[in-house]
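thread: overnight batch results

M.L. [08:02]
morning all. the overnight job finished for the chain we discussed friday. pasting input first so we're all looking at the same thing
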Amino acid sequence: MKKHIYIILTYVAFATMWTCSNNEDRVGESQIDTTTPILNELDIYLRENFVAPYNIEVQYKWNINETDIDRYLHPPYESSVEPVANALIKAWIEPYTTVGGPDFIKKIAPRQFTFAGSFNYNPNSPTITLGVAEAGAKITLFNIDYLDFSDINSIKEPLKTVQHEYGHILNQNYPIDIMYGQINPADYTAQWFNRTDAQARELGYITAYGSSQESEDFVEMVSEMLTNSKESFDAIVNGISSATARSYIRQKEAFVVKYYLDNFGIDIYELQALIEAATQQLVN
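M.L. [08:03]
and the structure it wrote out:
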């Protein structure tokens, strides 16, 4: 009996080795494309200015999985990409680096920007989405083919979107003071698009979208402060006829100032001045 068992086990072991050896002989080449991609000048520029120093990818070559497949969107012209990328460097990365230190953007930033050339119209709503932030890791910017870099207001459009979405990313790391939402909560509404900015300001919100909810209110304050000079922002607030509404917005401004100082050691007015100067220099 023992002899038979030994013979059988020996046969099984031999068969196993033969099968493994035979399978190895049949292994083909990898189906994964490992060839180095061909980079054009724009790709090299983006790698040198975003990927290498900050580990941020700027995606402009079309990948349908990176956008909402239910929207009518198209990729940007390559000629539209570098001006927007340069604006991000000059009016977002460099000012934050100056006031927050060389590692600020490296530590807290979206890891991917996706550029779309077209407008992102919202179905069943008279609104357009200018940008989207996803889980603090990605920001998508729309409409970049239609920006006019001879017009400072056009330049400020994507920058305001980035400051807004980046505000959400900062809030994910350091939450807003819960008392912020108690300043004037009664007029928050999901129907914010039925208000103009001027009407919202008379209720104590810096923009109509800011009147949608507390978190949007806060980042709209941030984005308006950081895409306007202090003088321009003060002119907006001082132009509000309601003294109560002006008081609400000034209280919110104080919360924003304290938020940046307490959590990041940043004087937001210094940041505001740097961004304004950089934005002015972007005008062709």
